[in-house]
C-alpha cells in the first residue's frame, strides 16, 4: 500500500509542478491564466478522484481474490484428505492379506530350517 501512496503523491506533485511551470512560463492575460488554472485544477481533481477509485477497485478485487483463493485452497485440501482416506481404505485389506502371507512364509521357512537341523545331510 505504501507504493500506491508514493505513486499517487508522485503523480500529484508532478502535476502541480508541471502546471505551475507552464503557467509561470506562458505569457497570457490574467483572465486566461485564471481560466487555465481552473481547468488544470479541475483536471487534477478528476485525476486524483480517478486514482482513488482505481485504488479502491484494486483493493476490493484483491480482497475478493484472496477470499476465493482461501476457499479454493480449503476445498483442495479437503479433496486431498478424502482421497488419502479412500486410498487407505482400499489398501488396508490388502495389507492385512500381505501380512498373513508373510507370516505364513516365515513359518514355512522356520519349519524348513528345523527339518534341516533334524535331518543332517548324509554324505555319499
TrEMBL record:
Coiled-coil spans are 95-122
Entry keyword set: Coiled coil
PANTHER family according to UniProt: GENERAL STRESS PROTEIN (PTHR35792), IG HYPOTHETICAL 17707 (PTHR35792:SF3)
Q: What is this protein called?
A: Gas vesicle protein
Task: Cite a single Pfam family from the UniProt record.
Answer: YtxH
**Organism, per UniProt?**
Tenuibacillus multivorans
Lineage runs: Bacteria, Bacillati, Bacillota, Bacilli, Bacillales
What superkingdom does the record give?
A: Bacteria
